[in-house]
Amino acid sequence: MLIEHILHTKGTEVATVTPDLRVGDVVALLRDRNVGALVVTAVDDETRVAGIISERDIVRALGGDETSAADVVRAPVSSFMTETVATCTPGDSVDDVMRLMTDRRVRHIPVVDDDRLAGIVSIGDVVKSRIDELETETSTLHEYLSSGR
Predict the structure, then answer these.
(1) Helix, strand, or coil here: 120?
(2) Rounded to the nearest 10 degrees, how much is the dihedral formed by the CA atoms of 114, 117, 98, 51?
(3) Residue 128, SS3?
(4) Is the CB of residue 95 less than 8 Å from the CB of residue 46?
C-alpha cells in the first residue's frame, strides 16, 4: 500500500506553525488539535517544511537543565524544533515509511510532493493501514479456503 492511499482516507490537512510562534502557543495547539506534532513551515512559504515540533521536543526542553519552564513556554518554536525532518512522498510504500519511522525513532512524517507539504502520516496511520491490509488478506484466505477450491 502507498502513502497516497492513507492520505486519500484521512485527508491532507496538516496542522502547521511558523518558527517564531511561542512554545506555549504550540502546547495549546497540540492540545486543541489533539495531535502529537506540528509541522513547522518557512515564514515566507507555508508549503515548505522547515522543521517539526513534537510533544517529545517540548518535554525534552522542559526537562533540560539550562532553561526554566517559564523560559521554554516563552521561547520561539525555532529554539526546540527538530530541523532535520524525515519526510516521505505520496508514492512511498507504507512499509518503507514504517521502516523510516523505526530507524529514525519518530512518530510523525510529513508527506512532501514536489518540495511542497502534501500531508502528514503518524505511526497510528501506518499501523492502522497495515492492520486493514492484514485483515483483508485474512478474509480473502478464509473465503478461498471455505469455497473448497
Answers:
(1) strand
(2) 120
(3) helix
(4) no
DSSP reduced 3-state for 109: strand
Confidence at residue 30, expressed as pLDDT on a 0 to 100 scale: 97
What are the residues whose beta carbons fall under 8 Å from the beta carbon of 16, sequence distance 6 or more?
38, 39, 40, 41, 46, 117
What is the residue type of 5?
Answer: H
| pLDDT at res. 125 | 95
pTM of the model: 0.87
Domains and CATH numbers, the chain: 3-146 (3.10.580.10)
* Nearest 10 degrees: Cα torsion 115, 119, 120, 126: -110
- Over residues 59-84, the pLDDT tens digits come to 999 988 778 889 999 999 999 999 99
Task: Kindly write down the DSSP assignment for every residue of 28-81, as one continuous string.
Answer: HHHHHHT-SEEEEEETTEEEEEEEEEEHHHHHHHHH-SSS-HHHHHHSBGGGTS
Q: State the cell numbers at 18.
A: 511558523
